[in-house]
Specification:
The protein is mainly alpha-helical and 450 residues long. The chain has helices spanning 15-22, 25-28, 33-49, 55-73, 86-98, 100-103, 111-147, 167-192, 211-218, 227-232, 236-262, 290-314, 327-338, 341-350, 356-361, 369-378, 383-391, 402-408, 423-447, and strands at residues 152-157, 160-166, 194-195, 222-223, 270-272, 352-354.
Length: 450
């Protein structure tokens, strides 16, 4: 099979070089077939408007692309190492079926801007799915925080008893963290939502193409203007997406670490359903929450991907460099790593039941030291004096009711005034945005066949 870059049929590439250079691209590109077809439809439509394709030629291309998409969905459109990538595979199929007409689809287009537009479309879909999963988890954590809002739990600083807290505060903290991560994901979604198609190999093309038309056809929010920057942004935008995914992973990591600690026999704060635990092959008593350990471990994978992609692009000069090829794997692996974690964390949260008596007994007397100091402050003593007095008389601390303590803290955001209802409209608003954005994208994809 000839390559898109071959100048003459006799040109041969050493097999070892070909295997090394293609790498996993032909496998990864199975994720991009649908998006390469959409890019070809938009590009072909534009070529008809400037007279480089006739309507009849475009109709034939469109019909063959529909067959390719159908074959792909049935698992019958396979990209091999000899194909190199999805772009070559589709063009060769069009040429095989349509002859000279098939050769025209690459007019005014480079594989460079093809992979850019494919990756942007792929990322839009994946980000919407990821935001949707994050919203689902956020809702479950919020349900947990509401259900157990007034159940006390010790608050820790430096891994030592600090002050009384509540399960409502613990859950609410992760709700707010996840909402911040949703905003971060939406930001990179917007950054990614710009159309690079028509930038060619990075320096434009000498034909009167209509880049704005292809942008509109594909449903991108805006056009990425500078042709050179279109290419230079490869890796940069992917790195930002991975950074947002890492931020989400770090929130899940912290939640998993807390729950691993709180479910040890030493803490024993929660009952854990058997269906989310495993056992030991040698120790009969073991109930392991290793789902949390693996969730925590995935953060290391994500951090490695972030470092890898940023290191890869750090020293590259302007223009296309083959190094960019590896950014595709980093991006796809990041989505593959984070996506299964979210529903698993949601399932685990639903299967946790607090042991109220154990949580109360964990409030040792010294945990109320700060509250004792505040009582003295309310009596007129300066806080620093109250702090020193309580600190030197810990054995004389009065008894406190942890329920009264957490309810008495009524400043906004404290245990007695968590404002959990504040998060409902935020979750509802972002859920609607995801649905609307997904429908808008699907509508644009459908119109490409008109």
């Amino acid at each position: 099979m000839s390559k898109l870059w071959q100048k003459k049929s006799s040109q041969k590439l050493n097999q070892a070089i070909e295997t090394f250079e293609v790498g996993e691209d032909y496998l990864l590109d199975a994720n991009l077939v649908e998006y390469d077809i959409y890019g070809s439809l938009a590009h072909g439509r534009m070529l008809t408007t400037i007279g480089l394709l006739t309507l009849d030629e475009f109709d034939k291309i469109k019909l063959e692309l529909k067959i390719i998409l159908s074959d792909h969905k049935k698992g019958q459109f396979k990209i091999t190492i000899q194909d190199e990538d999805v772009h070559t595979k589709i063009e060769m199929r069009l040429t095989e079926k349509l002859g000279e007409i098939g050769k025209k689809i690459h007019t005014a287009r480079s594989r460079n801007d093809q992979v850019l537009v494919d990756t942007r479309l792929f990322s839009k879909v994946e980000l919407l799915d990821l935001i949707g999963l994050t919203l689902d988890l956020t809702g479950k954590v919020l349900d947990f925080a509401r259900r157990y809002e007034w159940i006390p739990i010790p608050g820790y600083t430096h891994m030592q008893l600090g002050m009384p807290s509540s399960l409502g505060m613990w859950g609410g903290a992760f709700v707010e963290s996840l909402i911040d991560d949703i905003y971060f994901l939406k930001h990179v979604y917007d950054l990614n939502d710009q159309c690079p198609l028509g930038s060619g190999a990075g320096y434009g093309v000498s034909l009167p193409i209509d880049r704005e038309l292809t942008r509109q056809s594909l449903g991108f929010k805006r056009l990425q203007l500078n042709s050179l920057y279109c290419g230079n942004s490869r890796g940069k935008i992917e790195a930002n997406i991975i950074s947002a995914i890492v931020s989400l992973g770090m929130a899940l990591n912290k939640m998993a670490s807390d729950l691993l600690l709180f479910t040890t026999k030493e803490f024993d704060f929660f009952e854990v359903a058997d269906e989310i635990t495993t056992g030991s092959s040698i120790m009969p008593q073991k109930k392991n929450l290793d789902v949390f350990e693996l969730i925590r471990a995935k953060t290391a994978t994500l951090l490695g991907l972030e470092i890898s992609i940023k290191t890869l692009i750090a020293g590259l000069p302007s223009g296309y460099n083959r190094d960019f090829q590896d950014t595709k794997k980093f991006l796809m692996t990041a989505f593959e790593t984070i996506s299964p974690i979210l529903p698993l964390m949601g399932l685990a949260i639903e299967k946790l039941k607090p042991k109220t008596d154990r949580l109360i007994s964990a409030h040792k007397k010294e945990i109320y030291a700060t509250d004792a100091a505040y009582r003295l402050v309310e009596g007129g003593m300066p806080f620093r004096d109250a702090y020193r007095h309580v600190g030197s008389h810990l054995d004389e601390l009065d008894s406190f009711d942890p329920y009264e303590v957490i309810k008495s803290r009524d400043s906004m955001g404290s245990t007695g005034n968590l404002q959990l209802d504040h998060y409902n409209p935020l979750i509802s608003k972002e859920t609607t945005w995801v649905q609307d954005e997904r429908e808008r994208m699907e509508e644009h994809f459908e119109k490409l066949w008109d």
